[in-house]
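Bench notes, afternoon.
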Amino acid sequence: MSADEAAVNAEWTLPGHRVCLAQDEPLRLDSGVELHDVHVAYQTWGQLNAEKSNAILVCHALTGDQYAVENHPVTGKSGWWQQVIGPGKVIDTDRYFVICSNILGGCMGTTGPSDINPDTGKEWALDFPVITIGDMVRTQKLLIDHLGIESLFAVVGGSMGGMQVLEWACQYPENVFAAVPIATAARHSAQNIAFNEVGRQSIMSDPDWCGGDYHAQGKRPHRGLAVARMAAHITYLSETALTRKFGRNLQDRDAVTYGFDADFQVESYLRHQGSTFVDRFDANAYLYITRAMDYFDVAQRHDGHLAHAFKNTPVRFLVMSFTSDWLYPTRENRDIVHALNAGAANVSFVEIESDKGHDAFLLDEPEFHKVFEGFLEGCAEHRGLKRKEP
């Protein structure tokens, strides 16, 4: 850790790196607001080679964070992509230098609504400007520049992480060698906006939300955030996966109670997901991040033509979807592929057979891992990186 990072981390208790960026030149957001002194928390694994040509940026999803590999410092649970990142794994940390940062608007060390506004000395709360996926990526670019990396070997991520991957390829095509958007879309569908709105309304209708000023009043909207998580979590799974895991099995009883306790195991499971989520996530951050996802629409910024966003791009793409993902179904991933084809891009597409739903990209899916690793291996060869040890 550098002296600058040590100074920034003086009052920060979580493990990992944290830097203060946009100090000399503010970060201009899509809304027109300018942010300065933007903190970015991040983790790295592996070693950056002498040519600085082996860096992979991993972009996390809505409820993820920078702790992709090691156990989470708050929950103690395994890192969200521990199956993918590590020595000898798909993203081989014996070969690649891997970076994962908490997104702008997050709540694990990167500047967000629960942080202090340097202009007022008070918590941002709802004074925090509305952000976009593009703003998140521009913040990541500041970090990559800070690390002295001119060109990333690859940018990879699933779900909202995949949106960031697409944004990287659009904004900085000359700084990305390969891109792997997984289980994502080039714009949010009406159904996904609707689900996000249900989550936001559940938070804002919690009396402890206090108009977003809950920290100042010593409260937290636990109930609203938990319900938001429960509703969202249903969309991450498939009906098959839910039935296989829970069916109509009862929870610790032999008969229904004719009341509103958690009679069924699936109810108990969702309540657990909601109650544990509030221990590690901030309600206002949830509002801002879901709004950023809703605003995401790559084609809109290119006269409604998605292909124009990728015209003559030098980036190599691998687009992957899962057959049972109804949150970002295969047809929406195919739209990306068709646009890339129309833009004469170098693109591969694979639909992975899986009954695990949207969250399949976080789970043990051997075919997914095999295709992912093979693509990176081929790109590494083109990039002139050393071959994987047999």
